[in-house]
Every structure is written in structure tokens, then in C-alpha cells.
Design a protein that fits this description.
2 copies of one chain form a homodimer. Chain A is α/β, with parallel strands linked by helices and about 300 residues long. In chain A, about 50% of the residues lie in helices and about 15% in strands. The first copy, chain A, has helices at about 15-25, 55, 70-80, 100-110, 125-130, 145-155, 170-195, 200-210, 215-225, 235-255, 260-270, 285-290, and strands at about 5-10, 30, 50, 60-65, 90-95, 115-120, 125, 135-140, 155-165. In chain A, the strands form 2 sheets. Chain A has a 6-stranded parallel beta sheet, sandwiched between helices. A 3-stranded mixed beta sheet of chain A has the order 7-8-9. In chain A, α1 (about 15-25) packs parallel to α5 (about 125-130), α7 packs across α9 (about 215-225) and α8 runs antiparallel to α9. The relative contact order of chain A is 0.09. At the A-B interface, β9, α7, α8, α9 and α10 of A face β9, α7, α8, α9 and α10 of B.
């Protein structure tokens, strides 16, 4: 039994299995989720449930948050019933959501004024990585606070990279999302082009994916694109949220993202077609529609 | 000693080592190159030199061409002193250049009218793959002609994919180039964003490249981008030639390539800055310039 008390805020698709891995490692854990029913499954793993972020945080040494967007993090950490109301000096907030780097810096300052430390520690690896405890975790904040938190992060992730001061974990995650959005566009354009040209698109994916044109996306999602298997590993609406942060941050720091900007606009069309809760590989449907390709049903 | 006589047309960066691998495998080979001096090194490997494509082709069973662009292939195969003037009925032309799929179909028809078979067999894998004999070869034409040619292709490449009728090898190669151009943009945007944000870009490349945002490009060229090592594995001006074929073919078949089109336009700027003979990773220089990032010298 580990003695470090953890508060865990946000038990969604990612948070629930991450919290479960902490419970299984023996950490006493109090969970909070806006929709309480989504946190209840953790009770049989030994979690207590709290009715507010401030209640969850009051006895905790480590407070983990993983919620949807910047305003959600602001609310649960520094809002009315937020962590900041009760968190003890010396405790550490680890925000594993993907949110604005500049907002992260402000939240870290506000917490620091109360003696509470903060790391930004967004993740990649999807729900499968969360379940397996093999997430990649990109960390910003003070190095010594990361060192203290390492055993807990290792319970949830495999590759833990220290990226720099507050917000730098978020910046690294944004670079990740810029690349992913363009890799989705690359795979979608190549596959729709192949289909319109009369090629066997699966054969093209195989021929192209093994060489210099290969990517994780085309090798892992290319066949799903061809078969129109749009079950979400990562949802369109969450990528769109991340791309909005990328583009806003690009404005703040003075960087240009012509390609990621295009991908974001094309995904707007995917959302306009009611595909926001589908996996990001559904971008192929737009490129096919643009090429006037009629797809009957693909799954056999 | 193999008895199949080969004519080899185009002994540039790719063609020279490919011809050398055929000579080493024991094939009698007659080489032609527009600039004769570039073919001369093959003489000490046992090659004869010809002074025109038609002279090279006159006794050959297999005629291989690998030249720069569609008009070059038209000239050496069906032009005034082209292969078509002397090639024997039953001989096989294997065009390993990357050119227009629709022009390929017309050339194949013209050759077929003289009883000469044709395969389109563009390659990927760069000069290192050409030297090692490990190219990926994407083949269009008649399946039985590919079967006959297989021993010769295996001397130059490792992965040989039959893609369909005439032009389908070229179509597959174009899909490859669409994906590569967008992967270059993805890596360039992510790296320039990281630099402007104050991240260590090499650390970002490492953190991002191992997961779902990974690509061959970011993992193999990311560090070169960061260091401004622009030595060409594949030259900008050749990628641009390929993208022009992609965009023209997209118009012909009715497919949309919004991302590859953007990449092509951005590479126009790279060429306008005199970087056409550099490697395609030099796209990073434009994204850095757009973000007003001053790069001193990177290589140490």
C-alpha cells in the first residue's frame, strides 16, 4: 500500500483507466467527475468519490486533472469549487488535459501563490495506451517537481519526457497534434486519389506505408479509412479542440501553421456532416466526397 | 553470366547504381545517357556505351529507362532517335522514371503497335536504395510481362508490387509523393512551431516521432531539419516535378489534393530562394522564415 494520497479529477475515456492503474498500484485515490456516474465504476477498485474538485483535493498530496478543454481545467483547478480552495501547500497538481500553454502558465502562477506546485503533463497514446499504462507523457514545470512525481507518472505512462518550464509539455503536445492532423490529410488524400485512379487502395497503403512515405497514421488507420471503420481511437471533436489551441497559440507566439490550418478547416466539414464523435480517420470521407467517389458499404 | 541483353537509358544519380547492380549480376548491358560522361564510369563494370537510345535498344531483350520527366521519357522511347526505332518485337521496355500515368498509357500503346511490351515501374528508396539494390518498385502493365521481368527487377529492388494495368505503377508512386509532401509539411510546421515556442526541437522530434505522430520523414529527416543539413537524399526540384504530375493527374481523374497543392506552393518559395537542388527537408527554412526565426549556423 502506497501512502501518497491522490485526487483524480475527470474520469472519462482516458481518465477512468488511468485512475484504475493508480488504484491497482496501491495509491489511495479520491475521484471526482462532473457526471458522477462515470466515476462510480472506480469504487469497486477502492476509490472514494468526492462531490467537488475542492472536496477531492483537500487531503491529497497529488491532484491529477484530465478534462476536456481549457475552461474546464480553469474551473476544476482555480474556479469556485476548484482545487485551489482546499489544496495544501506543498501538494502538486498534475494537469494531464490538453489545453492552452498560456492559460497553463496563468493557472500555475495562481496555484503557486497558494504554495501549490503544478506540472502540465498532457498525454498521447489514446485509450489503449491509458488502459495498458503505456502513454507518452510530455511534461512542463519544475524539473524537481517532475522528479518527485515520477513514480506516479510511471504508473500511467511509459515514455515520460521533460520538455521545459510551465506550458512546455502542452507546447510539445501541440506539435504532436499539428503532425497528426497533417498525417491524416496525407493518408486521406493518397487513399481518395488511389480510389479515383482505380487502384486497390489497400494495396497502395501497403506499398507506400513501408517506405519513405510511411507514417503511424497510414500504417495503423489506412485500412480503417479504406473500410470506413470510423470507430474512435481519437475523436474528431477532440482533435478540433486541440487544433483550435494550436492555431490560437500560433497567433500568440507568431508561428505559421498553413497545413494544420487547412486540416482544421477540412475537419470543420467533417463535423458539419455529423462526424464529430467518430475517429479522426473519418477525414477520408470528405476527400472521397470531394472526388465524387461513391462508397457503398465497405465493411465485410 | 546471364544471357538477357539489357539496354539502360539514363545513368543519373539513380540510374548509375541501378545499372551497376545489373552488370554485377552478370547481365550484358549497353548504356546510354544524354551527357555521355555520366555513363562512362559503367565501362569498367563491363558496360558498352551507345550514342543514342535507338542504338542502345537494337539488340536488347530488356530496355530500361530512368530519366527526369515525361517529355524526356517520350523522347528516349518514342522520339526521333528513340527506342521505338530499333526495338525488336517481343522486347520489353521498363520505364522506371516517375512520369504522367496518362502519358505512360499512350507510350505503351505506341510501343505495343510495334510489338514491344512495356511496364511502368517507378521506384522509391532514393540513391541509397539504388546503391543497395533495395528499392521499392511499383509496377503497372501486364502481369505476365512483370513475371518475365521479375529476375531483373529483383536485382534492383526488394519490394516489388504489382499495381494494375499500364500507368498504375505511376499512380501508386504519385500517392507516395502526395503523402511525402504532406509529411514534410507536418515535420516542418511542428519543428518551426517548437523553435518559436522555445522548446528544444530535437527533443520534440524524439518525443513526437515515437508515437502516433511518427512518420519516416520526421524520424529520418527531423534532426537534419533542426541542424539545417540540407544535403539531398531527394531534391526539391524533383519532388516539385512529381507534384506537378500529381496535380495534373488529379485534374484528369477528378480528385482533390488540397494539402499536396499547398505543399507544392510552399516549395515554390523554397525554389525561389535557390534551394531547388537541396534535399526536400529544406522546407523547414520557409516555415522558420515565416515565423521570423533567426537561425545562425546549426551544424556544429
Amino acid at each position: 500500500m502506497n501512502s501518497t494520497k491522490i485526487a483524480f479529477i475527470g474520469t472519462g475515456l482516458m481518465g477512468l483507466p488511468m485512475a484504475r492503474n493508480l488504484l491497482r498500484a496501491g495509491y489511495p485515490l479520491t475521484a471526482y467527475n462532473r457526471t458522477r456516474s462515470k466515476a462510480e465504476p472506480l469504487q469497486k477498485d477502492g476509490a472514494k468519490l468526492a462531490s467537488s474538485p475542492s472536496e477531492a483535493a483537500k487531503d491529497a498530496q497529488i491532484i491529477i486533472s484530465i478534462v476536456s478543454d481549457t475552461p474546464d481545467v480553469e474551473q476544476v483547478l482555480t474556479g469556485e469549487n476548484g482545487v485551489i480552495r482546499t489544496a495544501k501547500p506543498g501538494s502538486i497538481v498534475i494537469d494531464m488535459s490538453t489545453i492552452s500553454p498560456s492559460a497553463t502558465r496563468i493557472i500555475a502562477q495562481n496555484l503557486e501563490a497558494r504554495g501549490v506546485e503544478m506540472l502540465d503533463a498532457p498525454v498521447s497514446g489514446g485509450d489503449t495506451g491509458a488502459i495498458a499504462g503505456t502513454l507518452s507523457i510530455m511534461v512542463g514545470g519544475k524539473k524537481e517537481i517532475l522528479d518527485q512525481s515520477m513514480p506516479i507518472l510511471k504508473t500511467m505512462g511509459k515514455t515520460i519526457t521533460y520538455c521545459g518550464g510551465h506550458g512546455m509539455g502542452q507546447m510539445t503536445k501541440l506539435c504532436n497534434q499539428v503532425a497528426i492532423s497533417l498525417h491524416m490529410l496525407a493518408a486521406s488524400e493518397a487513399i481518395a486519389f488511389a480510389e479515383k485512379a482505380g487502384l486497390d487502395p489497400s494495396l497502395m497503403v501497403q506499398a507506400v506505408g513501408s517506405g519513405a512515405a510511411g507514417s503511424w497514421v497510414i500504417n495503423n488507420l489506412g485500412t480503417k479509412m479504406v473500410k470506413h471503420d470510423f470507430a474512435p481511437g481519437f475523436m474528431v471533436r477532440l482533435l478540433q479542440k486541440d487544433l483550435r489551441i494550436c492555431l490560437a497559440t500560433a497567433s500568440e507566439i507568431g508561428a505559421s501553421l498553413p497545413g494544420a490550418s487547412l486540416a482544421h478547416q477540412l475537419y470543420n466539414s467533417i463535423e458539419a456532416h455529423g462526424r464529430g464523435d467518430e475517429g479522426t480517420q473519418s477525414l477520408i470521407a470528405l476527400l472521397e466526397e470531394m472526388a465524387n467517389i461513391e462508397i457503398e458499404k465497405r465493411t465485410e
